Structure formats: structure tokens, C-alpha cells
Amino acid sequence: MRRLLNTLYVTTPNAYLACEGENVLVKADDEIRFRIPIHNLEGIITFGYSGASPALMRLCCERGVAFSFLSSSGYFLGRVTGKAHGNVLLRRTQYRWADNEDVTLRISKRFLISKILNSRVSLQRFIRDHGEKIETSELSLAVSILKQLAEAVEGIENIDILRGIEGEAAREYFRCFDTMILYQKNEFSFYERIRRPPTDNVNALLSFLYTILSHDVEAALESVGLDPQVGFLHRDRPGRSSLALDMMEEFRSYFVDRIVLSLINRKQVNGKGFVQKESGAVIMTDDTKKIVLSEWQNKKKEEITHPYLDEKIPIGLLPYAQALLMARHVRGDLDDYPPFFWK
């Protein structure tokens, strides 16, 4: 299993990134504010307008460090990567599978069952940990419905019906999300999932961290030789990393949603850290982004026993572990793809 390295997050709007030998430099106001050896990094993510030298981008490509540019609100703008890794035969098999309705349906079911059951575990754990503080009937009903939806997945023979179940499961899960927000309800009420753009503080947190997660999953897929844009559950669309979105479904409730609820319920963030623009979009202040990204990095270092590999790995390596399992399945080393199940 590969080593968990760091991701460099740059939130200073006037920052300029450069390199000096094997070191990455972050400059602001003509001063070097931060320096880190390239071999300590697996990714660089910038927010807002951040310039970067061609020499640094070349160094990142040579060292396999993914370099992503995001808007200040976390909207993906672009990505610099080096040569695609892996065997061309692996990707050719992946493309053939994506064009095969039976294979697409089978693999899509794996992603969806993982998403539904992990969402269900999230609700069950909340009932267990906080049941004495809240009325749990709504959550218990959702737990039951999610179980029924998961059981129904295997019998579905149409990909569009499967996508319909995915939407139904997501709505059922997010219907309970506001109940899991225990504190700061005036500033962090949640009614529904709103993506483009997020128009409340909770959706701003979710969208921001889902974008960060997508970066990690894309990088993991590329590192094992798979094409992040050719997926199964999500339809092909220019510019969309469909396979990364497929695999993200396994981690949303386990990773991102837990962090968001923890940040709010532990009062690590508050309403003053969010700004609503004239368009109605809500974005985080730079200070709040730093708090969120710090919590994200800390969470990635925690260890978990992988349910299929049966070995302890940092949570931050889960996307890589699943990408590796998917590559093994596509190569024929595994009879089926084992998704991540939260126990």
C-alpha cells in the first residue's frame, strides 16, 4: 500500500507558486511564505486566483503530483497532470466495459449499494450516539427505507431505474440531515441538497468538501491507470469525471458528511465564516476554509481496518485502495469489484 503524503492547499488569493530545485514555493508580496519538498506532496489545490510558474507545473507532472485550480467557492476550474500511468490495455478494457450494458449495470449496483448502506450506517450511528438528545422516529424510518432500497438494487435490470433509486435514497438520507445538526440551528439549518451554487452554509460546506474529495478520487484513479472520466453509474458528459463521481458515492456519508456535522456540532465553524454573494451563492471566508481543510487533513490521517483488504490504512488512502481494487477487477484479477462498506 502506498504512503499517505500531504496535499498542499493554497487559499491566499494573491499567492504565486513556483519551484526552486525540488522544492515547491508559495510566494506572496514578493516574499516566500512557505516551502516544501515536492517528494512530500501528492497534490496541490489552489483556491481563487493563484498563479503558478511553468517550471513548477512541469515538476508536478514529472513527479506525479496532481495540481488543481479551484475558484474561491470551491468550483473546479482545471487540473494539471503528467503522463497517464498504467497499461493501455487496462483503459481499453475499461472503455469496452463502459459500453457494455450488463457490465455497466453490475458495477453501478456495487457503487449504489455501498452508498445506500453507508448512508444507513451513518444514521444508525447517529441514533446510537445522540438518541437521547433528539426524537429519532424520522431517522429510524429512513434507516428502514434505505434498507429496503438497498435490497431492491440487485433485482433492477435497467440502469435508468437504478439511477432513480439512487436519487430516492439520496433524498431520504438528506431529509434527515437537519436532524443531525444539534447546535447553531439558526446559522446551519438544512432543507435540501442544493449544488450549483450552494445557497446556505451547510450546502456550502458539503459542496466544498465534495470537490476536495473528487480531487483525491481522480488522482487515485489516475495513479492506477484508470480513466476518471469513463464511468458506469454516472452518464458520460464532456468535462465530467464520471468514474470519480461513481467511486465518490462510497465515501460521501462516511467521510465528508461526518466532517461537516462534526464541524458544526463542535462549533468549530460559525455563521460569521460564511458570506452570501449577490447571486445568492454562499461561500466560506479564508479563515473558515483553513479550519475546514485542517480538519480534512487530520481526518485523512486516522486509521481504519479496510473491510476487504483486512489491513489498517489511513482514511486518506481509501480512494487509492478502492481504485486499486477496481483496476484489479478490470484486469481480471478479481471476479467482482468489492466496494467500501462502513462497519
Condensed summary:
By secondary structure, this protein is of the alpha/beta class.
Strand order of the largest sheet: 1-5-7-8
Distance between the termini: 21 Å
Rg estimate, integer Å = 20 Å
Q: Which class of the largest domain in CATH terms?
A: Mainly Alpha
| CATH fold annotation of the largest domain | Four Helix Bundle (Hemerythrin (Met), subunit A)
- Overall pLDDT: 87
Shape: globular
**Beta-sheet strand percentage?**
15-25%
Which short descriptors sum up this protein?
single chain; 343 residues; alpha/beta; Ribosomal Protein L15, Chain: K, domain 2; Four Helix Bundle (Hemerythrin (Met), subunit A); four-stranded mixed β-sheet; 12 strands; 46% helix
What does this structure look like?
With 343 residues, the chain is of the alpha/beta class. It has two domains: 6-80, Ribosomal Protein L15, Chain: K, domain 2, CATH 3.100.10.20; 88-331, CRISPR-associated endonuclease Cas1, C-terminal domain (Four Helix Bundle (Hemerythrin (Met), subunit A), Up-down Bundle), CATH 1.20.120.920. Helices cover 46% and strands 16% of the residues. The protein contains ten helices and twelve strands. A hairpin with a 6-residue loop joins strand 11 (303-305) and strand 12 (312-314). The protein is globular and about 60 Å long. The mean pLDDT is 87.
